[in-house]
Design a protein that fits this description.
The chain is of the alpha+beta class and 739 residues long. Helices cover 47% and strands 11% of the residues.
Length: 739
């Protein structure tokens, strides 16, 4: 019997398990497809078992809720009954949210690029029932286009190959899986043995290589499409804080890029927050989805630029404004009010952060990309009147010929406004924002991703300290409490929650690493050792989960199908993508934890991960920004600071001065008298456990001055210099230790 004869076609739609199974999923992207006539299933053993039972291939479609072209292909093909009937009859269709399952996305993206030479979303991959890929592409149109077959043609060709040339299909799948296994073997990191020290010259050479690909006119790197280089910006800002022959070049590159992005259409000039990327070189036409992970990373980069002091091209004051507006937007637009017992729960305050806002806005039943954000000169004239309307149109580059549609454009100043122009814009902005709020708004994906919320905790905690906005630090604290309450269960960090219920797989390496970094950062800002102890628990769990046999991996065998697809070898991705690589982020978390705890074993682990850097630093520094940033911190020590003594203005001034320091990787331990719940260690947040020893080892033996006043200790490897009691002396000493 041929496979198609055993398929559940239109006549079998009423059978149990045959219909679309996405309605109850936590992912907004999957729920968007719950009404399709395609019999979608979520990724899992049940779906692949059904394909094996029917002896048909799997059609795997991967995308995300804010993806414009995902919506296009859904409307053209997945909502079409004839296409759905053919797909249902000859395949088992699986839908994956790449944000919920980045492990699935990563392996099949690698397969797609190997097969087709391109990558992107929606991703369309054809698999054997055990998960190995044998054909793939991205968007397929409903009708053939030059150089691109129609989706129906692809489906028919794959069906024909499966039925008539099965041996060749199996051979292709096995060859690809073996090749991916070899790639994973080349990226393996052994976590034992003494690592080589960081080479300062390697970091300077990375700056020089980056300079060769910088767009000095429009900022950023490369040409269109142009993405915010968030991890690279973190490296450049850290490198600029240390004296070297490339420090000025690093500062110049960072400043030009930060300035260009915040003065462009990539940045929402009305409401704050950054879009995913620009389709143009000058950042004038964004791809309009707004992602939590982008905005959390960029918020931190702008805050760190403020901390560095800015420069003449891009002042600290201008950066502080962009940072504050980004944080305000995150809280107002992505913040999810809690209903539980944690801080903010039931109070109407944001307790966690949703994943994204959509690129499209639905207007009269149609998905229109960026519709909420576009303006015509006539609209500006109508809202602002004859005095300000034409001026704002000129300032924001809104011309009769639009850049996104024939008549409409996003707001794109493209430069710093002068004093008089700024006054006009200050009058216009609230009126335009009010008008825009009356338009249809983009949908929000309300799933909570643990790692991205960890990024938000770190960024908001630092923003609160540096910008003088305690409300930002309070938001970080509420989010940390949500992650502890909802995502951290029985020693496992769950990746996704929805409606305050943890769902799906355990967290990946990146989730653990981002959360540890967020909690350690929050501890440094607040002095509440609850967050240090939680970070410690999660980090130790990560070591067992992802490095138990001395080799670091990104996942903990969440899926046998993913394991099969990469040649039955666990994988590690060393390159940054939209977020820092899990390996790089884990190295940074290990380094910070080792600085606070004194653990040489964890510092050695960080050093071993940094062994990935030498071939990447000069060959592909744009994809290794977070490894470079972590290496810069390791080269600096990093400097360890312990602030002790009675709570009061003197201690607060010492603590605040440290939080404003741009010293790469600086870790801060603050003695505090606040208590913490027994469930997270039973120690007072000032560092005293039940035995009287500090919960944070860096505080051990660090006491107030003989006269009882506050003082700060600066250390490396837990070896401290003479304590200081004044801010001036602290900054002078810190400057000599920063390298």
């Amino acid at each position: 019997m041929k496979a198609a004869d055993n398929a559940d076609g239109a006549a079998g739609d009423a059978r149990p398990g045959a219909a679309n199974a996405l309605a109850g999923e936590p992912s907004a992207y999957l729920r968007q497809h719950a009404g399709n006539p395609v019999h979608w299933r979520p990724f899992g053993d049940e779906a692949f078992g059904f394909a094996a039972q029917r002896d048909v291939p799997v059609f795997l479609s991967i995308g995300y809720a804010a993806c414009h072209w995902c919506h296009v292909m859904a409307h053209e093909s997945f909502e079409d009954q004839e296409t759905a009937d053919f797909l249902n009859a000859n395949f088992v269709a699986i839908k994956v949210d790449r944000e919920e399952r980045p492990d699935v996305d990563a392996v099949y993206m690698a397969a797609t690029q190997a097969i087709s030479g391109e990558g992107g979303w929606p991703m369309s991959v054809f698999l054997t029932p055990d998960g190995r890929a044998f054909h793939a592409g991205t968007y397929f149109p409903p009708r053939p286009m030059p150089g691109r077959p129609s989706f129906r043609q692809v489906l028919e060709a794959v069906r024909e190959a499966w039925l008539e040339r099965r041996e060749a299909v199996e051979q292709n799948a096995e060859t690809l899986a073996r090749g991916m296994a070899e790639t994973q073997l080349a990226a393996a990191v052994q976590l034992t043995g003494a690592p080589d020290p960081v080479d300062a010259g390697l970091l300077s050479e990375a700056v020089r290589v980056l300079a060769r690909s910088e767009d000095t006119h429009d900022g950023g790197f490369g040409t269109a499409p142009k993405f915010p280089p968030s991890p690279v910006l973190e490296f450049l800002v850290r490198h600029a804080a240390v004296a070297s022959d490339t420090a000025d070049a690093a500062r110049d590159m960072a400043g030009r890029t930060l300035a260009a992005m915040s003065r462009s259409a990539l940045f929402d000039q009305l409401d704050g927050g950054f879009a995913r990327y620009s389709v143009t070189r000058d950042w004038s036409v964004p791809h309009f989805e707004k992602m939590l992970y982008d905005n959390a990373q960029l918020l931190r980069a702008y805050v760190h630029w403020v901390r560095l002091g800015g420069d003449a091209v891009y002042t600290a004051e201008e950066a502080a404004d962009a940072a504050a507006r980004t944080a305000d937007w995150m809280i107002a637009s992505l913040g999810l009010a809690g209903t539980g017992d944690g801080p903010g729960g039931g109070s109407g305050q944001a307790e966690a952060f949703a994943s994204s806002l959509d690129a499209d806005t639905v207007v009269d039943g149609q998905h229109l990309e960026g519709a909420s954000y576009l303006w015509t000169p006539a609209e500006l004239l109508e809202i602002l009147g004859p005095d300000d309307g034409p001026v704002v149109a000129r300032l924001m580059n809104v011309a009769p010929e639009g850049t996104v549609t024939k008549a409409a454009s996003p707001l794109h100043p493209g430069r710093r406004l002068d004093g008089a122009e700024h006054l006009v814009w200050a009058r216009a902005r609230p009126r335009l924002l009010a008008a825009r709020s009356g338009r249809p708004q983009p949908a929000r994906d309300d799933k909570v991703v643990a790692g991205w919320n960890g990024l938000a905790v770190a960024a908001l905690a630092e923003a609160g300290a540096v910008l003088g906005r305690p409300d930002f630090t309070a938001a970080a604290t509420r989010t940390a409490a949500y992650l502890e309450r909802i995502h951290w269960t029985d020693g496992t960090l769950v990746r996704v929650s929805h409606a305050e219920e943890a769902r799906g797989i355990g967290g990946l390496l990146e989730d653990y690493a981002f959360c540890v970094d967020g909690f350690l950062t929050l501890y440094g800002v607040t002095g509440d050792a609850r967050w240090y102890l939680l970070a410690q628990d999660i980090l130790l769990a990560a070591c067992l989960r992802f490095a138990a046999d001395g080799t670091l991996v990104d996942t903990a065998s969440e899926s046998s199908q993913v394991f099969n697809a990469q040649g039955q070898r666990a994988g590690l991705e060393p390159f940054d993508n939209a977020t820092p690589s899990g390996a790089a982020a884990f190295a940074g978390a290990l380094l910070s934890y080792a600085a606070l705890s004194g653990s040489s074993d964890h510092r050695i682990m960080a050093g071993n991960i940094l062994s990935l850097l030498p071939p990447l630093a000069t060959r592909a520094p744009r994809a290794a920004g977070w490894l470079l940033a972590t290496a810069q911190a390791a080269l600096a020590g990093p400097v360890e600071a312990a602030v002790v003594g009675p709570d009061g203005p003197a201690r607060a001034e010492l603590h605040h001065a440290l939080l404003l320091s741009p010293s790469p990787g600086l870790v801060v331990a603050l003695a505090s008298d606040a208590g913490i719940p027994a469930a997270v260690g039973g120690a007072g947040a000032g560092g005293a456990g039940s035995s009287g020893a500090p919960a944070v080892p860096l505080l051990e033996g660090r006491t107030a001055a003989p006269d009882g006043s506050a003082q700060a200790f600066l250390c490396r490897g837990m070896v401290c210099e003479r304590p200081v009691g004044s801010v001036a002396e602290l900054l002078e000493r810190l400057a000599t230790m920063t390298r």
